[in-house]
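> @MW can you paste both from yesterday?
MW: sure, first one:
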Amino acid sequence: MSPEMNDLAAFVSVARAGGFRDAARVAGVSASSLSIAVRRLEAKLGLRLLNRTTRSVAPTEAGQRLLERLAPLFSEMEAALDVLNGFRERPVGTLRLNVPSSAARIILPAVLAPFHKAYPEIRVEVVVEDGFVDVLEIGCDAGIRYDERLEQDMIALPIGPRVQRFATAAAPAYLDLRGRPTHPRELLEHACLRGQFSGGAMAVWQFERDGEVVRLDPPGPLVVRPGAAVDLTISMALAGAGVVHIFEGMLRPHLDSGALEPILEPWWPAFSGPFLYYPGRRHLPAPLRAFVEFLRDQAEADVS
């Protein structure tokens, strides 16, 4: 007896997502049901398709071969069903976005609220991932990244503010006690609340003014990986534990309220804003096509 289509679909979704929980979140089903489906498929085929550990799930050699053959077929099936959206007044379906934590905090709130108002039938699923991933491989339709991390074969569309800055700040009480730096190198004498990339490298603090660039690897009492832990860094700064150097958009409410005081503002480095990136294929899923058109309309409205 040939394997059930649902079991094959379960295998593809888990292999793409790299785990049962992530796949379940994307598919809107329980992780246990996916696990049962994959085990049933493996039993029917007489082969192990996924290597499972407590931390990750990855295809075996046989599973990888099967995934390579099945993934295009399921993509074609999804595209075929998506054609039906052309018969509706408004597109329906799910838009899956892979974004860094900074975009989830700064960019998406201002974009998704009006998009949802314009397209209430489209469900948006956001996967926050600060490490660089293949958006298609994990089952997402598009991602948000900065230009230095875009893949060459992707279409990139500006999203959000076109210029952003890194801001440096600390609580007024901390600065009253430790002093207010007038040059970035003076931060080497301060308690700096640091960030670390997912790969383990420390994020260098960079400053620019009048052609002078200063890069620092300052000491500090706290180091966090990206993601939700960024909120811990800001909370520590608010509590007077040290200096924070992060996206201005994340600090702006606290700067405006006076809870944090800007430091070295003439030195804050500016950089280009992020892009929505997606594969340059002829047929885009209707939810993604609607999102792209919405962003383009927004950009035209901002210019006019």
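MW: second:
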Amino acid sequence: MKPAVVLLHSSMSSKAQWGELVSQLSDSYRCIAVDLLGYGATPFPADVDEDYQHTLAHEIDAVNASIAATLEPGEAFHLIGHSYGGASALHMARRMPQRVLSLSVFEPVAFHLLPAQHPARAEIVAVVARINASASAQDATRIFIDYWNRAGAFDAAPAAAQEKMTAMIAKVKLDFQALLGEAATLAELSALSMPALVMSGQNSPASTRLLAEQLAQALPNASAVTTRGGHMAPITHAAVVNPAIVNFLSNAEITAG
């Protein structure tokens, strides 16, 4: 039986973002791309009210329920995640380290791993504050999209795309709530001994590049790779990101064997 690979996408995206990578891996792996809560075909979290606190545990509970029908009980798998999906993957690896054969993450937005005074964490906290203080969902979405891409990116998008993105900003706010509320530290990640690939884009915000650098140092068996493109490089520069993941997985399989 082919080894399994679980793929987790970024905020305001869906499992479809991994289409090209899945096609490249499918000859050698059983690929299980998952829609995170509130994205793609997966429903928005239930019972959300003013007292609701979203967590990465909620996300991984849903991921585990989704993949249970495809994996054998207790079966190990390779794990890939981008941005929010990368932070979710780190939570999953900490929760079930014995089942994660390897970990590939592109700029996981796990800012909770950094001290409160760290510039990268302070920068993202300020961005979240601006999003939450926005007068409209569209204004909040503009701040989110422009931060991760470039100034003017939201307004440059077609009206239909703007509408689609704006419809997802409520879940993005929950994503940030989960990220900043997670109780984990870089020191705790030193217990994760599986092979790891930590990727970042050369044009990404300093916040995620700094976090990726710290993460690669904390994981005991990690390699760090910088690719062309920015934070959304797994989508915009898949031609350079995907081969790095494919090669890493091949080496991880040899090591595991």
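> thanks! The chain has one domain: 4-113+184-256.
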